[in-house]
Specification:
Length: 251
């Protein structure tokens, strides 16, 4: 039981313990009644990289090129420390403006492929025949901010202009090892993500994207218990939720 410096019981801690003890009977009903609250019915926060045309940049509230927590409208700078807690390859359906309107498991819907025009390089474009929207295969991550664990987890989608960097990161995550030589869980280490300016190959203008990932130290026991474990339990199923933030410029 928590005590003050004088040795007396701390009232707040004692009340919290009593409330926890009094709610033990609810353990037998864990999760009941929430089954119908699906992934499209919840509000999620995203870690995005602000672009020149992002709403908050156009409104002159924030500068482009920074990592941005959409949940609390917070500028996190051009470097941010994160802990990945879940990962998934997904199919994003994007409208004419580049906004993701739906997200699917790969091959979960029927698509048509438009061939690359003669004389041009690239790959066939997948489209949803029902909507005409483009289908893009990308990576979705659930991340915990190492310096702000109280924020919970944030969703993050790999921008097409940085796929080489994200694939390199995925390889590093897959090859991560624990000190005893065993394969590490995805949440074993803290990583620094770095944003910077890149030049579009299709549009004669620069854009902002992930430019580097830096491997850091192992997650300690306190940070794991405080932020990683709770996020791990609830984030995986939500990776199929469609982002509502501005996407990176498509290459």
């Amino acid at each position: 039981m928590a005590t003050t410096k004088q040795g007396n019981t701390t009232p707040g801690a004692d009340a919290a313990q009593m409330a926890q003890d009094g709610a033990d009977f609810l353990n037998a009903y864990a999760g009941q009644g929430t089954e119908g609250i699906g992934q499209n019915a919840v509000s999620l926060s995203y870690l995005s990289i602000l672009q020149d045309l992002s709403d908050v940049v156009v409104a002159r509230q924030f500068e482009p090129g920074v990592f941005f927590n959409t949940g609390i409208q917070q500028d996190l700078g051009t470097e941010v420390k994160v802990i990945p807690v879940a990962f998934k390859t997904v199919w994003d359906e994007r409208d004419q403006g580049g906004k993701t309107v739906s997200r699917y498991e790969p091959h979960a819907i029927e698509v048509i492929e438009e061939p690359v025009p003669i004389g041009q390089s690239g790959f066939p474009v997948k489209k949803n025949p029902k909507t005409g929207n483009k289908i893009v295969e990308t990576f979705a991550y659930a991340l915990v901010l190492a310096d702000h664990p109280e924020a919970g987890f944030l969703m993050h989608t790999a921008g097409l202009g940085s796929m080489k960097v994200y694939r390199r990161w995925n390889t590093m995550l897959k090859q991560m090892r624990l000190p005893n030589g065993q394969q590490a869980p995805i949440f074993a280490k803290i990583w620094t993500l770095v944003s910077g300016v890149k030049q579009s190959k299709t549009v004669n203008k620069p854009f902002y994207a992930l430019t580097d990932v830096i491997e850091g130290e192992y997650v300690n026991r306190d940070l794991f218990a405080q932020a990683v474990l709770p996020a791990r339990e609830s984030s995986t199923a939500l990776l199929l939720s469609a982002p509502t933030t501005n996407e990176e410029v498509e290459e």
